[in-house]
Predict the structure.
Amino acid sequence: MHSYPIRIFDILFSILGILLAAPLILVIFVIGLASGGKPLFYQQRVGRNQRPFTLVKFRSMATNTRSVGTHLVDSNAITPMGRFLRRSKLDELPQLFNVLLGDMSLVGPRPCLPNQHELIDERESRGVFDAAPGITGLAQVNGVDMSNPRKLAIYDSLMIRNMSLGKYLCLILATATGRGGGDRVKYG
């Protein structure tokens, strides 16, 4: 799915996003330093062709939280600042650097953890790992999360098989305008 025009847009949009969001990124970073000392969260994720890469986000959970899917974590592990960052999706801003480096795309299957074996198996059987993982994708704008590995892999596969520059831009627009959960994005 990492076609040449999409990679060009990934680079342009990530640079633009980093430049426009730089003041906000700095403020969140400083608040994170002041409130706990570790504003960034680094985690190994499964990337394209199942190669591991280090994903970076703003920390939204206590530092001693175990490394499992978000749907498996006790909600008490999320810090008050983390709730705001998650609700506003600002915890994702540092992933623009992952996109710029080529570890991710703006649009693709959300990268899973190496210990999410059921999801890895479902994705592998559908060729999902042929694509770079993304910050957003068809499953995300349709409210499908990692708690249903089969359904998620089906959405990911559908997205990858039908990806075009127009659909890439449509999914970015759907994400930017807050569509998701209850709103269904037609695709395919």
User: Anything to note?
Assistant: The mean pLDDT is 88.
